[in-house]
Every structure is written in structure tokens, then in C-alpha cells.
Amino acid sequence: MKTLNDYNFENKKALIRVDFNVPLNDVFEVTDDTRIQAAKPTIIKILEDGGSCVLMSHLGRPKGVEEKYSLRHIVETVTTILGVKVSFVEDCIGDKVETAISNLKAGEVLLLENLRFYGEEKAGDVAFAEKLSKWGDIYVNDAFGTAHRAHASTAVIAQFFSENKCFGNLLAQEIESIDKVLNNSEKPVTAILGGAKVSSKIGVIENIIDKVDHIIVGGGMTFTFIKALGGKIGNSLVEDDKLNLALAILKLAKEKNTEIHLPVDALIADSFSNEANTKTVNTNEIPDGWMGLDCGPQTSEKFAEVISKSKTILWNGPLGVFEMENFASGTIELGKAIAEATNNGAFSLVGGGDSVAAVKQFGFGNKVSYVSTGGGAMLEMLEGQTLPGIEAILQ
Q1: How would residue 310 be classed by pLDDT, with cut points 50, 70 and 90?
Q2: Does the pTM exceed 0.85?
Q3: pLDDT over 70 at 353, yes or no
Q4: Is 197 one of the catalytic residues?
């Protein structure tokens, strides 16, 4: 696996695929700069070597050229975070870019315009990728968030760099962290899978069931399991067409000696609202007209006990509707348990949009071992899939 450490970038132009797809408010200010911060070590390493950086990224889902999706809006934020002036060019291919690249000196950073202003980017167009490839001597992929997409700038472009391509620090760390959980983990290994649907996690469960000792199930997917086992779940979220699948997962886990832990109690509500009436009941005794929106205190204790004995922890998905304050307790208690286990020497990896949001919201970001930047990409890696953006560098 080639990384930045395999190259000296002195007098070289590094063409870096970053993931600067960051949220902007109504006046185009960056509201969460995590992804820009995450790319900083790669960019700084190249500049300190004496190289220059050409950054390319997408932003949002534009239909053609749309001003609101222009990367010009983030230039100031990127400049502030890097501590280096970032220049911007209003295109990503063509004469304007060629001029800007030819004037780029060692120690300088140039940001290209949104790649997705061209439909060829998402289409994985070879000719478009070849045009982009002209802008650097060495190609660096540091965009984990798009590594599962076979786009021109992530999977197709690498073929034009033969030996001169590598992973940036962020992407290398992501690969190593997931590999550590899946293939080089210290036992016992616990995977916490939350979120709404069993169907969205089935690939992950099937791939990791051989590799983990415990699977903690939480969130809305709980109730598909509980109903499959004959429990009463009231108006809770359920996938009725996945009841047999839930039973098959429980059977497979038994065969593999993997323990599946389901919530034993739930905080239920009479409507999907923070102002709803609530009470705590057993997860298999939820009355009609009520729905489970968080796990209960007994469940939190049970889960914390499993986590305290774990040496490797994967957390993907919250345990309740944490966005509503009254249903955040299960997710917060889980975060505390993982933070404590990490403090006691466990390796903990958090990934998937909602769990990352929860970790940030409740201040656990620096209390776990690693927070992944890519939701879909991480899920596909956990499912055992080959990611085009990673494969392109390895070939």
C-alpha cells in the first residue's frame, strides 16, 4: 500500500483528490469543517517536502454549473485551516486551469472548481479523467468519502499515473482502522449496529459475523428482531418483510458462537415528538399506539457491561432518535461506555453518518480511537466489498 511516505514531493505538483463536500449555510459559510481538517496533514506534508498542491473535490449534487455549489465559497475556510493562502480557479479543466497550474510554485496550493459541474465526473469518463491527470506529477487520493464511487477523479484517473500514485494520510488511516477491526483485531471484538433498518446492515452482519464475538443491535432495527421473536412492538418502526431474515441472522450467530445482544427495555412514546408522553417498558411489551424511540436504562447497563470487556469496538449507528433530546440517553450512555473502554486500552472505530454526528454532538470525538469520515464507503468496506477508489491505487 503506497502512502505519502513512499515519495518525496520536492519540486513536484501533487494532484490531490480531497473530500471537501462540506455543509454550507444560507450565506455560504462552512458549518462543519471536519473533512477539511482531516485533509490538512496530507497537504502540509507535501508542502513541507517542497512540493505544491492542486486540490480537486466535488460539492453537493449540482445539475450542471450552479453557483451555490461553487467551491469558491470554501476558499477562505481552507486557507484559514491550512495556514497557507489557497488560490482558486473557476474550472477544473481547460486553458484557465492550465495557466494557473503553470504559475503554481513550490509551497503553494490551488483549489479547482467543483468536479461535478461536469457530468463526466460521475460517469467515470476516461477522457475527462485524462484531462484532470495533466495537473499533477503524482496523484494522491485522500477522499475516503467518495472511495466507493467509480468516478473519474477517484477510480479512473489513477491509470494515468502508473507508479506515481498513493494514498493520502486520511485514506491510509481509514483503510488501516477498518482492517484492524476486520482482520487484525484483539479479542473480544464487539460490533454495535444501530439505525433504522436491518436491510441496510445485512451485508455488514453477514461479513463480520465470523470476525466478532458480540453484536449489539440498537435503533429502529431492534423491533424487527423483537417482532420476529414474537414480541409486541406497538407502533414501532418495523420491516415486516425482513422478519425471517432477522430469525436467520439469530440462527447464524448461534452457529458461529457470536452473541447478539438486543435491547431488553425501551423508552416509548405516544407520538414521534420530543414533547410526547413517555414511559419505559420491556421491548417485547410495547402497547398499541406507542413506539420505541430509545433503549431503556437496563439495556444501557447490559450493553456497557459487554463493551467494558471488549478490546476492539466498532460503532455504526445510534441506539435511539438522539436528535431529540428526550431520546438521546441510550446513545449518550453507549458513547460513555465506549470512551471508558477506549481509555482502558480498547481500540474503538466509529463510522456512519449518524453515529459520527452523535459522537460530535455529545463530545466523544477525542475519546474514541478513530472517527471515520465516510459513511457509505465505510459500510461497503465492512460488507467486504472492494472500493473502486482504493483498488485504483493498489493496481
Answers
A1: very high
A2: yes
A3: no
A4: yes
Q: What does the pLDDT average to over 82-101? A: 98
Catalytic option among 12, 17, 35, 45: 35
Annotated catalytic residue, options 60, 231, 353, 365 = 353
| pLDDT tens per residue across span 100-109 | 999 999 999 9
Cell for 65? Answer: 454549473
The CA-to-CA distance between both ends of the chain, in Å, stands at 10
Q: Of these residues, 60, 107, 231, 376, which one is catalytic?
A: 376
Mean per-residue pLDDT of the chain = 95
Catalytic residue among 96, 180, 197, 360: 197
Residue type at 50 in one-letter notation: G
